[in-house]
Each structure stands twice: as C-alpha cells, then as structure tokens.
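Support reply, case 0932

Customer input (verbatim):
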Amino acid sequence: MKIRSANFKAPMAAIGLLALGLAVVGTYAARSALHGHSSAVADAHKGELIGVAYAAAPPQSSPAPTPPAVVGGGQHSPYVGQTSPERVFWGAAHNHTGYSFDAGMFGITLGPDDLFKFATGQEVTVDNGMKVKIDRPLDWLAITDHAEYMGISDQIRAGSPDLLANPQGKRWYEMSKTSPQEGVKAAIEAVISMQTGKPVFDASKLTAGAWTHATAAAEKWNQPGVFTTLHGFEWTSAPGGNNLHRTVIFRDNADRVNQVVPFSTFDSQDPADLWKYMDAYATKTGGQVLAIPHNGNLSNGQMYTAETFDGKPMNRDYAEARASHEPLLEATQIKGDGETHPFLSPNDEFANFERWDINFSKMEPAKNSVLHSNYVRSALELGLELAAKLGANPYQAGLIGGSDAHVGMITTREDNFFGEFANGLPSAERWKTPLAMVNNDLKKGPLVSVWQEQAAGLGGVWARENTREAIWDALKRKEVYATTGDRPIVRVFAGWDFVPADNDRPDFAANGYAHGVPMGGNLLKAPAGRQPVFMVHAVRDPEGPNIDRIQIIKGWLGKDGKTHERIFDVAVSGGRKIGSDGRCKTSVGSTVDVANASYTNTIGATTLAAYWKDPAFDASERAFYYVRVIQIPSPRWTAYDQKRYGIKMADYVPMTVTDRAYTSPIWYTPAK
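Our regenerated output:
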C-alpha cells in the first residue's frame, strides 16, 4: 500500500456452538469472560491455536502458567489496591437531540433531558406519538449535539427575542411557521452554510444559551456508580460536503466545561484548529478533552490521509497531535459500518456489511479510488507506514461504536429501531423514504434511503467504576470496543509469556494485566525467538444471538515497505475445523425465519475463547492486531417492520444481519 494523499480544495456543493441457556450466560459464561473460566478445548493450527467453545473444561496438561499477579499489598483481602478494570460499561459517545439543527428543524422536539431519561431505562414519547423504551438501560452516555446553530429549533418554536432580532433568524422563524416544507428549506440553508464554513447569521449567543442548558441536563442526570453523563458536542466540519466531523468529549464537570462554548465549523473547518481549541480548554481550566472522528465512510477520501487539511505532507508534530487528541475512531454507526470494504479487503468474506459509500459533494456513489481513506482498517495500516516514515503514528487509535441518531433517543436493537431522523421513525412506509437523491435530482431516484440505516452502534468500555473520570480515562487509553448494536462481552490480552493454561485461570484478567497488555495496548521489542500470544474471551449478549466465531485481524508493514492484512479464525463454534491457513471455510448457517422475524440460538456458541500465537510473526515488522467477534445471523430491523406492518419490501432490502464487535487494536512496535 502506498501512502495516500488527499486534497481538500474540492468544489463546494449542496447536500450513515451450542445454546446453553440464558442461565448459563448470565452466570458461568459471564464469569468466564471476566475472570478466565473457559470451556472445552479443541487444539488446532499445529499447536498455535486453542479454540474454546463449551461450558466445562476437562483437565489439561500444559506448561506451568505464568506467575500469579501480585495483589492485595500484603493484606488479607486480595482486592486491596486493585485498580484493573473488572466490568464492561455500555454507552455511546455520539447522540443527538432536538438541540441539533438537523433534528429540531426536521420536527424532533425531544431534548437532552428526554434522551438521558430514555437512556436510564424510562419511557418517553417520540414526536410521532409513539411510546418507546430501551431494552436495557445504558451505563453512560454523551449527548453530542451539533455546535453549529445549537438549540436554534427551540428558539424558533419559542419565537425567541434574540432570534427575532436578527433578520435572518426572523426569516427562518417565519419560514418554519409557514409550512413544514418551508421549514425544511431553512434547514437546508443551514446545511449548505456548514459546507461553506460561513454561517447564515451569527448564532453564537443562542449557542451559548443552549450549551448552558445542555450541560445542566448532563449534571442533573449524572449519578456516579449508576449512570454517567459526559459533556460533549459535535464539530461538524464538512468542506464541500465531505464529512470530517468529530464528537468532542470532556472528562470534567460543568464548572470547567461551562468556561468555554462549543467550537464550530464556523470557527474553522481545519481539525488542527479544533485541537488548538482543546489545548486552550485544558490550559484555561485544567480539564481534559478528546475528540472522535466519525463517518469516515462519508468523507470521500478525506478522513484518513497522509496530509494535513491544507494538503501539506503530514510531519511528526502533526501526527503526534492527531494521535494525542483523537485516541479513538468511530468504526460503526447508523450511517453505515466503517471497518472495511470488499474492494479494500477482497479476502474478507465479512467485509460487505452495512455499507454507505457516498460522495456528498456530488451526490453520487463514492469511487473505489477514495475508499482507502474512508475505512478504519485502512487507516490503521496507513498509520504503520507513517510511523515508519515520521516516527509517530497518527492512527494509533482504538475503535468505538456510535449511534448518531437524531431523534432524541438511541435504539440499537433490531426489534426496537426508531431510525436516524424524523423521516425514519417507525411506519409502514419509512423503509423506502429517500434520504438523498442522486445529483440532487428527483428524477434520478434515491442515492440512499431509510432502509439502508443500520441499528447501530454501541461502545463497551472496560473500567473500574461507572464515573465520568473512569469512563473517560478508559476511552483515552483505548480500552474500549465497538459493537453494531448488541452487548457481547469481549476481552483480549497479548503478551510474550502466556501459556494455554493461562486462558483458564480464575485470575485471568489480573494475570493478563500483570504479564501483558489489553486492547488498546502496545507490545514493545519482542524477546528473541518469541511470538506474541493472544488470549481472547467472548460471551454472547444474554439477550442476543450466539457467537459464530472469533477472528484476529492482523495488519503489518512488510520489508517491501507495503502494508498487508490477514484474517485468522482463532475460535469457531459447532465443532467446525480451522484449516492450516488459519481459516474456517464452513459457514455457521442460519436459523432466521424472515416471515416471522425470528431466529433461534440452536447454532453458534454462548461462549468462545482462544489462545493464539501469530504463526507469521516477524520481530522487525510493525503490526497491529484487533479482535472481531462475528455473531450468528438474526433478523434485521427491516424484517421486524415487514412482519409488524404486514408489508412486503423490495427484494433488494436485506432481511438478515450478522452483527459483530471490533476491539481496539493491540500494536507491536519493533526495537529501533
């Protein structure tokens, strides 16, 4: 792979084994993933791989496990002084309410209080009159309404004097009162202004007021140990319609956060200026803040490149700044999955998943030539190239899932999906509602429609406690993973000295931290003759599909100066075999009954685990490894709609989905 470049000076244009029963999952299986009790072991791949897939392990003869971790500080209780994370906390760092102009101006009135209420498991009524409730409360949430025109729709509905005092604000007010169609025209004007970076009018005073209300709501709903709210906003840079958006997430409470107002694309479209804003915040308040790029799949080749915003080659300072300010990449959300693409990964049979590939600058499908700069796997590979060239890796970033719902709630379950925008709220007709037209021409038909939205995604955070500080710190150190909507428990450690018996230790996690690194970590300088060893545990969501397989995705920079990738199946369900090439070619099958929008967990596994050594490791080559957990097929939200409304959708609309999880990578950096 050659280092990619991009030019931001684009023309401006107008407008995402066996089923063991739930009791097993809720007790033994969960304990297995968290603390290391695994299950029956199948040896494969010439001793380099041990895949685990049942519920009780027979005795094994193996080398002695690594020494025990030192815990307890000499106290009777072994947990005294323990600081390692022991729980996964579920949430999302990308969510919108009616405070976002492209939610509120399209009819969404639910605000921050409503979204926090919903996330804690309470019932709310949405703007089409339907009542809705999340299947299980979330543990944490960041509301990230757009900085641009934040709260404008509330000001329009209320006829705010500050709004009406501005001629353009008054004009938008009158348009919105005239008819819904005129209100949409006002919203489109807002979209266009964000593509140019020039506001229709100065709404900074209104934004400051909305920010104060938003932070107050976050403070109100924050309950340390129960439910964590994180202050945040979205910086919506979209030069020429190409998506460079970032969500901005603060570690701090309102006393610090309220000392600043959100940074918008009207302040600058350049990510480096956003980083300066973040640095200024830290200097002024003593606080901490990070940013998360998202929707690279809609950036038209602009999100993950080897250049700066103004087209100059990236240098070491810039690479270090990006890595420091942006420790995570959003790998999946409603507007498409962002892991990889069949064109980029032709040997990956799971790559063709929930794809949106759109050039919004021309309102047409994106060309294959730009895809390498749109997807996170390619970004991770590019990072290896730049690290070798610059001495710093701008894309040494973890992976997280986000929602991006603009309806004042977050619904990532296939059977409870309420869409991204107001026009995607549940109805018999929503599936065929266009979101954008080819070349903005009604006669050419839809470029993308509601049926292409996916019910995604979530972030699983490994933390010691459910507090702002602990959740944010886990995000910063990249001990987080993305899912496309369900809540499987996934844990991985890598090191040089682990032996198979370590995978079954009761102190699996403590041993993993003591003698290796978790997801998001970095392995340094391989001992002579050693290969990196990975231990992976996965437990299905107790309310979701079984697990098909665990895979490790490896990317590396070869001696030829090019990047390469390879997929290894490291544990599979149902007694299937992994070949000498590290792949299982046998499908898990499917139990989906599309007509009844149902499935059974009679295939797949409730738990899987693996002990794996890289058979092709070269200590001189930079590399990354991340875990992908593939679930068995289940009904997609479109199948549930088809059943509920008694309709028949077009044949091109998918009715099943193979949901999955992506962990943050573990990197290997050779000695200099």
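We compared this against your earlier run and they match. Two observations from our side: The first strand starts at residue 41 and ends at 44. The CA atoms of residues 557 and 621 lie 6 Å apart. Please reopen the case if you see a mismatch on your end.
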